[in-house]
Amino acid sequence: ALSVVNATRAHREHHSALAASADGSLLATATASGGVAVHELRNGSFRQLMSPVKAHGFVVPAVCFAAHDAGAAAVAPCVVSASLDHSVAATKVAANARTFLYIVIVWIIALVALILYDFERAVLFLMRFTDRQ
User: Fold this and answer.
1) Per-residue pLDDT reduced to its tens digit, 21-58
2) Is the four-CA dihedral 13, 44, 96, 109 of positive or negative sign?
């Protein structure tokens, strides 16, 4: 018997097409308003890898992953989509920019926590550093 492993809302719009990558690690979704998004599939759960990109001006009934050499690490996967507005688009899969921002925020929080933990040493270090200048 079939059972639902995980269900999640991929984006706010109606899905009009979807496709899985050859290795099954990525899922491309298309929207009724012309958007294309990519999700990472891991252990039965979804994680949005690329926010919806407005690739077309109308509904996208067809989407697929373009074949690429899996051994070529420098080549990012590409999603090819076709729309009822008579357009075809190739969208390079790129991770959300928010990931980098989250990493920077975590580093800043860790630095502030370290300074607060050992405030006296941090002040002495900064005083010595500014005296050398």
Assistant:
1) 888 888 899 988 898 988 888 877 777 777 778 889 89
2) positive
91-109 pLDDT, tens digit each: 888 765 556 677 778 878 8
Helices 119-132 and 98-117 pack at an angle, to 10 degrees, of 100
Residues 53/34, Cβ–Cβ less than 8 Å: no
DSSP percent split of the chain into helix, strand, coil, nearest 5: 25, 35, 40
Instruction: Output the six-digit token pair for 35.
Output: 């958007």
Q: What is the dihedral of CA 79, 38, 91, 75, to 10 degrees?
A: -70
Q: Which residues pair with 90 in a beta bridge?
A: 80
Query: What radius of gyration do the chain's Cα atoms show?
Result: 22
Q: Residue 6 burial (CB < 10 Å; 0-12/13-18/19+)?
A: exposed
